[in-house]
Amino acid sequence: MTNLPDEDDSDYPKCPNCGHIHICKHVALAVDLTFREILGGSLENDFYETRDHSSVKESGESVNYGEKFDKYIHQIRISGNFTEVNYSDNPGPGLSSAYATFYRK
Predict the structure, then answer these.
(1) What SS3 class is residue 24?
(2) Has residue 14 been placed in a domain?
(3) How far is CA 13 from the centre of its chain?
């Protein structure tokens, strides 16, 4: 992830399991919800691998990244296996984003 916070930065979420800020062994997925961007976590590769199935490539169909992102996040939310922590930043006009970090329970 980019722009990691300082350990004493109270504006960022703490892991509900171990108390670390942002990155720890419990982070399954960290995302920018505003720009539909995967920022990291142990499930990051899973998203990209499932996004480009060989059958889609062979058929010549294009992959709707935004739709795939939304469905993937929905599946993670309904699975019940993760604790979702939401937060936002506001570095300046037009630059703010909403983020979510999914921690393994």
Answers:
(1) coil
(2) no
(3) 13
**Would you say residue 31 lies in a domain?**
yes
Contact 8, 72 (CB under 8 A): no
Q: Domain for residue 92, yes or no?
A: yes
* Residue 59: predicted pLDDT: 52
Distance in angstroms (rounded) separating the CA atoms of residues 104 and 17:
8
Low-confidence ranges of the chain (pLDDT < 50): 1-7, 53-56
Q: How many CB atoms lie within 10 A of CB 30?
A: 22
Main-chain phi, psi angles of 99, to 5 degrees: -120, 155
Q: What confidence tens digit (pLDDT) does each residue in 45-61 have?
A: 888 776 554 444 555 55
Residue 6 lies in a domain: no
Domain that residue 64 falls in: 27-104
- What is d(CA 27, CA 56) in angstroms, rounded to the nearest whole number? 29
Q: How many structural domains compose the chain?
A: 1
Where do the H-state alpha helices sit in the chain? 44-51, 54-59, 65-79
pLDDT of residue 73: 96
